[in-house]
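stage 2 :: seqdesign
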């Protein structure tokens, strides 16, 4: 079903475009590529040149410049033909050669191969991006065409490519604001990842097509009639918008909604001439239709991190059918549709170089953030989480807006402003009031960081648990890496010994270095001390390697697996699930991550805003700091709490979670269990036939209430579809 692209189609498109293209250079690149690829075929059986032509065409539609089109035409010649980069440089100049080189390097780095290599690969990709963003734009177009023609590839290849596209390329397209490319990549991947769900939604949409079209047409007419006698510079453009299949799927399955419950299933977009008109149009719309409370979002005043701007509101139409309205200017529209590519498409006329800088700054941030990380899962998580659309916008006292991922704390905010501010943070005020450092910020809040004057003031290790962004975590780790080698060695050694004890690994001192040799090499450590230091600052995560070490130990020292298995299951009798609050009973209780109190510790509670009570140890630095500040208003929020004298018999139960497969899923579930202080006795996960993930665990639970609350919490995890109690 792929279009047979020809150079004539491309030339036609260039001639009808009002941009100044160097046609002869583009034709030259085409002829050069056609000759180089001569005789080669695509999996579809078509001549290979179809592919570079298609990629060039996609980029032309995006409005990219001559060099990018030439780069696209030549993007596979160095990799797949005897042509050298030098030849490309001689014929087409340094810029085109640099683009081809960038794409070639990206192609040589498959994202989902061996774990150790993956980190390096993603890093290379980001480096290529930061050098010249056009490299990744070519790569996205390349991927788009490969996805469009994926049906010619073998089944396993389809799944892997679709997976990679969904996890890496679609989020990058989103981050660069390229909506059209992002949605098409998502829909195509989704089609291969879950063909059933895809065709089901496609089918429903088809059934309702007529109904939808009639509804949207009548809304458009109603709005247009009302706008007619108003003062608009130009008549506003009103379009009906079709939601992508994947975005409907996400809303249906992730938030357990039926298609009728998806408010923005019907959507209308209004494009006007200037910002003032956006708000005028909004007023008129709200006058015509009843707005649904809490569904209004002003992304003009608070742009998303990918620079997206619009007003969003959901209103009730005829027969009470809700629909979404987006209102924006033409410039915002260009940014929303083409994202970073709008920079080339509308080079003249629209001032956007500072926006471009902001986007590129993000890429630099990601690269910096992962310089200290050898952990693939973390890097992929950076791309996914730091790219996630869920963002908050927090203000500095000076009125600058800072966007951060949802759940970011004041620590993240401090590090985002400046590394040194992060390191020297001692306290923070939100909207003028002192808050604990693990306070989770929300959109619209003004956050002020109070720093210490001490020269060598540094972060606290516990901040690694408080920080949400990888940027902050990496900076904290880096500080410990740089400043506290001795301490890192000591704490790293202690941590390793503790883990070994826990897993019954007993290695004689003199054999240890040899036993760990592989891991030393893997993490670029030349001595045991280096390795300890890496554990100490968090560069090496023991939880990630301990399983392998245990297997190795069992093999080498011939401990039977059975013995280790049983030793892992520790009898749990005393579960201190509840704590008694001095005055108030019915509040949710969570354990502060800064000091992680355990049963038996002396504890105090802090009344958070809307998140129940957070329990700290009496020795916690946050509590001690509060005592020192002696601010009566703040002190009033600390209260006495005690552990229950719990002799409840704990019981074991099984739990089964079915969810959309994604990276980090198991981690998220385990985090919930750990946060609730629920011991996991055994767990496993696998992929079901339909592509969903099944996570099974045996846990120790204090009673049905606790079980219910855990189920509720797990259900809130992204992608989770069902949580059931199961036999042990
Ligand atoms: Mn290609």
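stage 2 :: out
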């Amino acid at each position: 079903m792929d279009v047979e692209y020809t150079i004539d189609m491309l030339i036609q498109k260039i001639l009808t475009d009002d941009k100044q293209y160097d046609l002869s250079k583009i034709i030259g690149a085409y002829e050069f590529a056609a000759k180089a690829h001569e005789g080669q075929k695509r999996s579809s059986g078509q001549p290979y040149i179809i592919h570079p032509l298609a990629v060039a065409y996609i980029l032309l539609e995006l409005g990219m410049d001559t060099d990018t089109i030439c780069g696209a035409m030549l993007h596979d010649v160095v990799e797949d033909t005897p042509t050298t980069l030098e030849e490309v440089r001689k014929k087409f100049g340094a810029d085109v050669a640099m683009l081809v080189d960038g794409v070639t390097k990206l192609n040589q780095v498959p994202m989902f191969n061996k774990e150790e290599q993956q980190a390096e690969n993603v890093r290379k990709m980001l480096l290529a991006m930061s050098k010249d963003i056009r490299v990744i734009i070519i790569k996205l177009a390349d991927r788009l065409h490969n996805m469009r023609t994926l049906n010619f590839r073998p089944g396993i290849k389809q799944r892997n490519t679709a997976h990679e596209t969904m996890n890496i390329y679609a989020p990058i397209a989103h981050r660069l604001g390229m909506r059209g490319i992002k949605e098409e990549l998502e829909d195509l991947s989704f089609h291969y990842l879950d063909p059933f769900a895809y065709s089901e939604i496609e089918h429903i949409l088809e059934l309702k097509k007529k109904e939808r079209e009639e509804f949207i047409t009548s809304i458009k007419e109603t709005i247009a009639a009302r706008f007619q006698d108003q003062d608009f510079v130009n008549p506003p453009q009103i379009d009906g918008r079709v939601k992508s299949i994947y975005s409907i799927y996400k809303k249906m399955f992730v938030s357990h909604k039926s298609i009728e419950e998806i408010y923005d299933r019907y959507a209308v977009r209004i494009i006007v001439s200037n910002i003032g008109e956006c708000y005028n149009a909004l007023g008129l719309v709200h006058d015509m239709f009843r707005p649904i409370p809490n569904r209004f979002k002003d992304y003009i005043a608070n742009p998303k991190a990918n620079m997206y701007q619009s007003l969003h509101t959901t209103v009730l139409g005829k027969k009470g059918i809700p629909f979404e309205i987006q209102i924006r200017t033409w410039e915002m529209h260009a940014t929303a549709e083409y994202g970073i590519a709008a920079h080339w498409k509308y080079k003249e006329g629209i001032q956007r170089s500072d926006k471009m800088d902001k986007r590129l700054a993000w890429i630099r941030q990601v690269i910096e953030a992962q310089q200290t990380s050898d952990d693939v899962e973390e890097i992929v998580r950076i791309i996914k989480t730091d790219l996630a659309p869920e963002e908050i916008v927090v203000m500095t006292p000076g009125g600058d807006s800072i966007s951060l991922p949802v759940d970011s704390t004041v620590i993240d905010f401090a590090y985002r402003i400046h590394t040194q501010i992060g390191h020297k943070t001692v306290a923070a005020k939100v909207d003028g009031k002192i808050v604990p450092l693990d306070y989770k910020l929300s959109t619209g809040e003004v956050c002020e960081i109070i720093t210490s004057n001490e020269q060598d003031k540094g972060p606290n290790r516990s901040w690694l648990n408080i920080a949400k962004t990888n940027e902050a975590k990496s900076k904290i780790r880096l500080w410990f890496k740089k400043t506290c080698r001795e301490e890192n060695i000591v704490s790293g050694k202690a941590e390793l010994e503790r883990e070994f004890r826990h897993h019954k690994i007993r290695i004689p001192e003199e054999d240890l270095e040899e036993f760990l040799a592989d891991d030393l090499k893997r993490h670029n450590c030349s001595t045991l001390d280096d390795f300890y230091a890496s554990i100490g600052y968090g560069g090496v995560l023991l939880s990630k390697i301990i399983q392998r070490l245990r297997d190795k130990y069992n093999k080498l020292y011939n401990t039977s697996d059975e013995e280790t298995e049983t030793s892992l299951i520790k009898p749990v009798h005393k579960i201190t699930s509840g704590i008694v609050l001095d005055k108030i009973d019915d509040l949710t209780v969570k354990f502060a991550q800064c000091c992680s109190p355990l049963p038996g510790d002396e504890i105090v509670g802090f009344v958070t805003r809307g998140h129940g009570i957070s329990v700290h140890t009496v020795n916690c630095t946050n509590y001690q700091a509060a005592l020192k500040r002696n601010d009566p208003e703040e002190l009033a929020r600390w209260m006495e709490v005690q552990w229950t004298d719990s002799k409840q018999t704990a019981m074991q139960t099984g739990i089964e979670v079915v969810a959309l497969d994604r990276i980090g899923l198991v981690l998220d579930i385990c985090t919930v269990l750990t946060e609730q202080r629920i011991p996991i006795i055994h767990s496993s996960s696998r992929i079901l036939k339909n592509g969903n993930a099944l996570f099974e665990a045996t846990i120790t639970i204090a009673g049905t209430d606790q079980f219910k609350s855990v189920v509720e919490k797990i259900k809130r995890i992204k992608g989770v579809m069902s949580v059931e109690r199961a036999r042990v």
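stage 3 :: structure notes
- The CA atoms of residues 302 and 393 lie 7 Å apart.
- The two ends are 50 Å apart (CA to CA).
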